[in-house]
Amino acid sequence: MRTAQETRKTKETDIAIALSLDGGAVEISTGIGFFDHMLTAFAVHGGFGLQVKAVGDLYVDGHHTVEDTGIVLGKAFAKALGDKSGIARFGSFYIPMDEALAFAAVDVSGRPFLAFRAEFSQERTGEYDLCLTEEFLRAFAMNAGITLHVRLEYGANAHHEVEAIFKAVAHALRLATAQTGGGVLSTKGSL
């Protein structure tokens, strides 16, 4: 079963995540409405079962909550993937969302890296600072042990731009974590 549960409690946040790579219930609560919407889209479009309960110091801002959620989700992904045998390993996907177009490519390699290129049309949408998108994805990639490339090609509406990114990442991960029935996809024999 490709599932994992992870928690993290600090003076700034208290986060619990349950993840199933093969689908299941989606229940998201972070205290940041737009971020909840993005994590829900991520789970639905990735075909993942995902429960997130995050309580953070939102009186400061959303940074700690968003980044720490990325850390915990990344650790859950790494645990759920185990030794990474029998998965496609690579995935890439474009998502058009009205006027916005985003691209994501992933290598479930064990070598964490984030390349992020996006200039957003606005600084915020709702109570969500758009700069936190890169912070979330960096925390996720580093803790999941994946190489992730994300590019916002263009757009004019911040909501659409960020949502296209989250959906592109989800679809790329869905493809990369798809079960192939083979061994570890590496000439080295391990990742």
UniProtKB/TrEMBL annotation:
GO terms, molecular function: imidazoleglycerol-phosphate dehydratase activity
EC number, as in UniProt: 4.2.1.19
Pfam families according to UniProt: IGPD
InterPro entries recorded: IGPD_sf, ImidazoleglycerolP_deHydtase, ImidazoleglycerP_deHydtase_CS, Ribosomal_Su5_D2-typ_SF
Reactions performed catalytically: D-erythro-1-(imidazol-4-yl)glycerol 3-phosphate = 3-(imidazol-4-yl)-2-oxopropyl phosphate + H2O
Cellular compartments annotated: Cytoplasm
Pathway(s) annotated for this protein in UniProt: Amino-acid biosynthesis; L-histidine biosynthesis; L-histidine from 5-phospho-alpha-D-ribose 1-diphosphate: step 6/9
Gene3D superfamilies linked to this entry: Imidazole glycerol phosphate dehydratase, domain 1
Keyword Disulfide bond attached: no
Main location per the UniProt record: cytoplasm
CDD domains: IGPD
Keywords, ordered alphabetically: Amino-acid biosynthesis, Cytoplasm, Histidine biosynthesis, Lyase
Family per record: Belongs to the imidazoleglycerol-phosphate dehydratase family.
NCBIfam families tied to this protein: PRK00951.2-1, PRK00951.2-4
Protein name per the record: Imidazoleglycerol-phosphate dehydratase
The species this protein was found in: Anaeromassilibacillus senegalensis
